[in-house]
Specification:
The chain is α+β, with helices and mostly antiparallel strands and 365 residues long. The chain folds into 2 domains: 237 residues, P-loop containing nucleotide triphosphate hydrolases (Rossmann fold), CATH 3.40.50; 117 residues, OB fold (Dihydrolipoamide Acetyltransferase, E2P), CATH 2.40.50.140. It is 23% helix and 36% strand. The strands form 4 sheets. The chain has a 6-stranded mixed sheet with strand order 7-8-9-3-10-11, sandwiched between helices. The longest helix has 17 residues. It is elongated, with a radius of gyration of 25 Å. The two termini are 32 Å apart. Bound molecules: adenosine-5'-triphosphate (ATP). Adenosine-5'-triphosphate binds next to strand 1, strand 2 and helix 1.
Length: 365
């Protein structure tokens, strides 16, 4: 539905030339919710703006549905208003002097050929019902709450009944609780309408909870593209692993490769760590491994299966409400375990440290 091929954007700014986007390739399927995730300045907004026609690429080709909307080589660019898209921005871009109804009607009034008044009324009414703003038609837009303004912006994006909707950090002005509620509402609505979504955010929770697929960007490039589960469980680099949640890292040498059901072995500062065949690493390779704190199990001596588990020492514990974070010294290095608050652990005491082979990710960079 959305095709971005070898997209490049170079800005000539007061600080010299900036290569904001450096060869991005994206293929979003019809009905897919696709998220671009990355730190500030990685090029995600510029990519989205190129798709919207608000920025002119230095190179590459963009298609929306069957239409080529930009092709640098052919010198072809279709203007924003002729692209089959709706947009929602961080600032909402709501017209303060207009009512709720007129804000949503705006894109239809601008459309050519003209949309008949009766149709405008029906379509605005439907869009407002969908975002649960029915009954607010005559209210001036600034008199809505933050959450309602966000929904108004969404109504305006869907009223054109475009196949693609673009989101640029649309929830960042909402408080934490409303943001969490709106995340799922927004995803459900997009899915219900059968729209294809490209969503830009720097918030990993937003990306993981909303997206069908996530692309992590760094320095103008996509460094990993996968489902949220895959990105979280199998990050391919230290950058992705630490950008998405917390992680323990250790460098090591592979002493045995994994073969079928037989786990492989890596010699690390924590001691030998086993990994499964999903992590591809050859004997003798120097690698970095990543293990999430919730996958480090602490088992008390004397409990079942604790006999041959490597022993560590609890250095300190931090109570976080729903969990406790324990820093444990294992071998010649430390690692963090996140455990249930009911599990008894004592600082300074020995404890078994269990890491399952399937929870070990091997990073390429
Ligand atoms: P943020 O989340 O902070 O918006 P981003 O990942 O969306 O970050 P972009 O806004 O795409 O990043 O910016 C990518 C790079 O391009 C940055 O270094 C930025 O300073 C630069 N840049 C963006 N727009 C322009 C412009 N119009 N002129 C010059 N440089 C620009």
């Amino acid at each position: 539905m959305i095709g971005i091929h070898d997209l490049r954007v170079r800005f000539d700014s007061d600080k010299g030339l900036v290569d904001a986007v450096q060869g991005v390739n994206i293929d979003v399927k019809p009905g897919e919710f696709y998220t671009l995730l990355g730190p500030s300045g990685c090029g995600k907004t510029t990519t989205l703006r190129c798709l919207a026609g608000l920025e002119t690429p230095t190179g590459g080709r963009i298609t929306i549905g069957d239409t080529v909307v930009h092709d640098t080589k052919r010198g072809l660019t279709i203007p924003t208003h002729k692209r089959d898209i709706g947009m929602v921005f961080q600032s909402y871009a709501i017209w303060p002097h207009l009512t709720v109804f007129e804000n949503v009607a705006f894109p239809l009034r601008e459309a050519r050929p003209k949309v008949p008044e009766a149709q405008i009324e029906a379509r605005v009414g439907k869009a407002l019902e969908l975002v649960q703003l029915g009954g607010y038609e005559s209210r001036p837009a600034p008199f809505l709450s933050g959450g309602q303004q966000q929904r108004l912006a969404l109504a305006r994006a869907i009223v054109r009944e475009a196949s693609v909707v673009l989101f640029d950090e649309p929830l960042s002005n909402l408080d934490a609780k409303l943001r969490a509620e709106t995340r799922l509402e927004l995803r459900h609505l997009v899915k219900r309408l059968g729209m294809t979504a490209l969503y830009v955010t720097h918030d990993q929770t937003e990306a993981l909870t909303m997206a069908d697929r996530v692309a992590v960007m760094r320095d103008g490039r996509i460094v990993q593209e996968a489902t949220p589960t895959e990105i979280y469980k199998r990050p391919n680099s230290r950058f992705v692993a630490s950008f998405i949640g917390q992680c323990n890292f250790a460098d090591g040498t592979v002493t045995a490769a994994a073969r079928g059901a037989e786990p492989g072995l890596i010699d690390t500062a924590w001691g030998p760590v086993r990994f499964d065949a999903a992590a591809d690493a050859a004997t003798g390779a120097k690698v970095t491994i990543a293990v999430r704190p919730e996958n480090v199990r602490l088992v008390a001596n004397g409990t079942d299966g604790a006999a041959d588990v490597p022993q560590g020492e609890v250095i300190d514990t931090v109570f976080l409400g729903e969990s406790v974070e324990c820093r444990v010294r294992l071998g010649n290095s430390d690692l963090v375990a996140r455990i249930h608050p009911d599990q008894p652990v004592e600082e300074g005491k020995a404890i078994g440290v269990m890491i399952r082979p399937k929870d070990v990710a091997i990073l390429s960079t």
